[in-house]
Amino acid sequence: MDLSIHSPLLRSSPSLSPCPFNSKNTTLNPVFHSLNFDSRNFQRKLLVSRQNQRIRAQVSDQIVNDHGFVLEDVPHLTNFLPDLPSYPNPLQKSQAYAIVKKTFVSSEDAVAQNIVIQKDTPRGVHFRRAGPREKVYFKSDEVRACIVTCGGLCPGINTVIREIVCGLNYMYGVDNILGIEGGYRGFYSRNTTTLTPKVVNDIHKRGGTFLCTSRGGHDTNKIVDNIQDRGINQVYIIGGDGTQRGAALIYKEVEKRGLPIAVAGIPKTIDNDIAVIDKSFGFDTAVEEAQRAINAAHVEAESVENGVGIVKLMGRYSGFIAMFATLASRDVDCCLIPESPFYLEEGAGQEYVAQNMPGVDEKDASGNRLLLDIGLWLTQKIKDHFSEVRKMTINMKYIDPTYMIRAIPSNASDNIYCTLLAQSAVHGAMAGYTGFTVGPVNSKHAYIPIAHVTEATKKVKLTDRMWARLLASTNQPSFLNRSDNS
Ligand SMILES: Nc1ncnc2c1ncn2[C@@H]1O[C@H](COP(=O)(O)OP(=O)(O)O)[C@@H](O)[C@H]1O
Ligand SMILES: O=P(O)(O)OC[C@H]1O[C@](O)(COP(=O)(O)O)[C@@H](O)[C@@H]1O
Ligand SMILES: [Mg+2]
């Protein structure tokens, strides 16, 4: 019987305490050659090719120059509405920003996706740097914005909502902001709520989402009809990979209808599984909270004879929470993540787990596969092993803090991170960018084409040094052969 566990089906990433089982790169700062990519210059392929000899290829919104510099650009409203008027950015008159040396981000600023390069390698993919632009494409009193939150919870959602509202109001003088309640379906099945700085003043101190959320219910046409009917011209969409896919469809439909509506995505997920960006908001808070569960398991296991503690954490297909919580805690003896197939004494397959548990083919309303609860299964297997094979009685404590780590308010650093995300999204929408997701790339906030963050799921790389650090700290088996790593 094949008993090896196949990671894609793991529901979450348990970490164990105490466990029953026993180049050198040249780092260079990329040199930025002066490449003029002011939006009007490179929106239109042919125009760009003629105007700038250094640009030798452009595929859709991608520019490549002779140095292997690739700009993965985001759409701009003027791509399909060339006559859209622009206005001076009201931040010019802001007292707070008056002392800033460089209030506006240059249209030539780009953020490198890969900052560890070698002298002769191409300079690689870059994204537009996020931040306020000299010109905006909306008059403050004509903005009618809306905010929606979709998918699972995550610490910090309320901070993002609060800072979008306050950012729009304080920086751009916008006071027409709607909250769409209950996720995507809220566009057509619920009433909206009016958001002002006063209404959202304290919400960052609470977990969850002030606007409520849901899975499923994305109907692009109905959503865009509703956006149009309500006269909304800026749409802020906070959510994970599924939500961002939905946001891309909304942007496409808006473009098809030729509407002057900016669509901005703010990536949210507790799992940290969104590609390109350094880290998702709330992740640090969740890892911190997971310490409490690991600590409890450790204390319980240490305080009795033959104590074993198991903690189950979230992560779907990505084991970042378990990996970072383990690295931070140092009390964990074995960390199991979906990316790393593991075996018990005879091997242990997810198929085997599936035989013992119903519901393997079920999906949630968004189409996400409902994964098996590996934590409970593992707990039983370990108990069985000790009683049947080793003839020992163990004292097992199983802790499942999964929803507790995502339902809390964000910590201080996540709050600041959420503020930057929200403000970057506001600056981007006001500047007329659309169909973008915002997020930090190598610590600099950037506007990223939505497809880039949805086309792949970020996973722990077992061949990276971080996983090696974890193996070294727990002293657990790697479960992998060297040949598996290639
Ligand atoms: N491929 C898709 N196209 C359009 N909408 C989607 C898609 N995947 C998910 N959605 C919608 O996005 C919302 C959230 O998706 P879900 O997968 O539950 O959470 P998350 O965004 O956190 O990954 C749901 O309303 C769902 O209907
Ligand atoms: O909220 P639900 O439907 O119980 O789903 C739980 C899932 O949500 C998550 O917490 C977050 O997933 P999303 O970011 O895709 O919403 C997963 O870690 C977990 O598997
Ligand atoms: Mg998701």
Automatic annotation (TrEMBL):
Swiss-Prot/TrEMBL catalytic activity: beta-D-fructose 6-phosphate + ATP = beta-D-fructose 1,6-bisphosphate + ADP + H(+)
Cofactor or coenzyme needed: Mg(2+)
Cited InterPro entries: ATP_PFK, PFKA, Phosphofructokinase_dom, PKF_sf, PyroP-dep_PFK_TP0108
One GO term describing the cellular component: cytoplasm
Keywords noted in UniProt: Allosteric enzyme, ATP-binding, Glycolysis, Kinase, Magnesium, Metal-binding, Nucleotide-binding, Transferase
Pfam families: PFK
Protein name: Phosphofructokinase domain-containing protein
Organism: Acer negundo (Box elder)
Taxonomic placement: Eukaryota, Viridiplantae, Streptophyta, Embryophyta, Tracheophyta
